[in-house]
Design a protein that fits this description.
2 domains; globular; 13 helices; binds flavin-adenine dinucleotide; FAD/NAD(P)-binding domain
């Protein structure tokens, strides 16, 4: 396993020649592309997955590793319930320890207003008979070893899980390859090859592959790929900083979100720590789609900070080309792995906040730190749909900060959509046309 975070200097693990043809071609080797490929292979459909950099080198290894039902949007909850069952099955099938552990998710409340904010999810949890419950101040303190601060209370779901993403998604990719999926790293998809409005192939930097069906699951790069074909989706990405501590005494076994810092126990005995804010680099898409994001920004005004420009080569950088042909180098192969620098001020803040909560630790020693670009939609729920404008094109993107946990559920659904089977869930909320058909934007819970 390469050192974390993954980068383009890591060895290429999946390298076979591009096949001449494939029933389905998947763009992107994150959790969504990988699990969709896996379920398509289980249905006997031939699949090729192309990844411009390395499997799971972007969001799917950089995330916090929370697999939660708690706090989900109503339309996502039944899917994540299925995903949790699938995680358990797939972890067993992988034959590798991916750190899958049932240790719960807890949200801390600083005020009665925060407690009242849990109401919507408590009602939903009751509908699905979840083990989610509200805790008072004393019960909240009892969840932790030596927490200094008294909270008003908390909402907790003990049955929620955690896993180590940088182990989990590469292990799922290996399983997919064992099931017959052709996976090719270091292979950017440049553009669709279209004949009379239908997909006839996909042009990659390694040549053309004949196919009638393409899935765009390119994470933060999806809108850039689709825009080159005239399909506009209001996707943006925010930069989120994360750190991992050295192993330390256990103060809680699960995952916890407070007002300033979020933390979760790791398999290596340390904690993954993260701040409660993220950074939006303002580029052409941020301005283009600003109005659509207003409801979410007004609902959570303090979560987002802004910077005037994205570094060169980022999907929404001012200098990133928006148009190219199949014969030209595309923005995707110019940046194999989107590897943003962590923000030093955020790192210092989370160390300080974590130490304030648990003063028994003299120092909070960090083992590593990193950042990731979280791709989001204006209503904080993904797009999972076929694209009406181009026959044979499917889109599963915009997982909005919670695609790791729900990943296998989305992968199973997309595989069935492609195979022509019933998806098994109501996907109306995730339709692509909701941003252009005059529908009101209804933000789901915060990223
Ligand atoms: C810091 C952070 C914390 C998070 N915490 C959690 C959490 O605790 N729980 C949770 O459920 N979710 C969490 N998330 C969100 C979660 O990680 C993402 O929603 C999920 O990983 C998205 O998966 P994906 O497959 O859609 O995209 P990605 O993992 O980003 O994968 C997309 C892949 O597509 C490739 N690609 C793009 N364009 C092309 C192209 N043209 N050709 C070939 N390849 C291409 C990219 O290189 C990339 O590898 C977090 C995210 C971050 C960054």
């Amino acid at each position: 396993m390469p050192a974390f975070p993954f980068s383009e200097s890591d060895p290429i693990r999946h390298h076979v020649p591009l096949p001449k043809s494939s029933d389905v071609v998947i763009i992107g080797g994150g959790v969504i592309g990988v699990t969709t490929a896996l379920f398509l292979a289980k249905r006997g459909i031939s699949v090729t997955l192309v990844e411009k950099g390395r499997i799971a080198a972007e969001q799917s290894s950089r995330n916090w590793g929370w697999i939660r039902k708690q706090g989900r949007d109503a339309a996502e909850l039944p899917i994540v319930i299925e995903a949790i069952r699938l995680w358990t099955e797939l972890a067993a099938e992988c034959g590798k320890d991916i750190g899958l552990t049932q240790s719960g998710v807890t949200y801390l409340a600083n005020s009665d207003k925060d407690m009242a904010g849990f109401d919507t999810f408590m009602k939903l949890a009751a509908t699905y008979d979840l083990d989610t419950r509200l805790l008072d101040s004393r019960e909240t303190s009892a969840l932790f070893n030596g927490m200094s601060q008294k909270f008003t209370g908390a909402m907790t779901t003990p049955s929620d899980l955690r896993a180590e993403p940088w182990l989990a998604v590469p292990a799922l990719a290996k399983l997919a390859a064992r099931l017959g999926v052709t996976i090719i790293e270091n292979c950017a998809a440049r553009s669709l090859d279209l004949s009379a409005g239908r997909i006839s192939g996909l042009c990659t930097e390694q040549g053309r592959i004949e196919t009638s069906t393409v899935l765009v699951s390119g994470g933060a790069w999806s809108s850039l790929f689709l825009r080159n074909h005239g399909i506009s989706i209001p996707q943006l990405a925010v930069r989120a900083t994360v750190a991992a501590t050295e192993p330390m005494a256990e103060i809680h076994a699960g995952a916890v979100a407070g007002a300033d810092v979020a933390f979760r126990r790791r398999q290596d005995g340390g904690y993954t720590l993260a701040p409660s804010t993220h950074l939006l680099h303002l580029g052409p898409d941020a301005f283009r789609h600003a109005v659509k994001y207003l409801p979410a920004l007004l609902a959570h005004p303090s979560g987002t900070r802004y910077s005037p420009t994205a570094p060169t080569g980022y999907p929404d950088s001012w200098s990133t080309p928006r148009k190219w042909t199949a014969d030209e180098q595309s923005p995707f192969e110019r940046m194999r792995v989107l590897n943003p620098a962590p923000e030093q001020a955020s790192i210092e803040a989370i160390q300080r906040d974590f130490k304030r909560l648990f003063p028994q630790f003299e120092t909070v020693r960090l083992k590593t730190r990193w950042a990731g670009m979280i791709d989001a939609m204006p209503d904080i729920v993904p797009i999972v749909d076929r694209a009406a404008a181009i026959s044979g094109l499917f889109v599963a993107t915009g997982m909005s900060g919670h695609g790791f946990g729900i990943g296998p559920g989305i992968g199973r659904i997309v595989a069935d959509l492609i195979a022509g089977n019933a998806p098994g869930h109501d996907l109306t909320r995730f339709r692509l046309s909701r941003f252009s058909d005059g529908s009101r934007i209804r933000p789901g819970p915060a990223i």
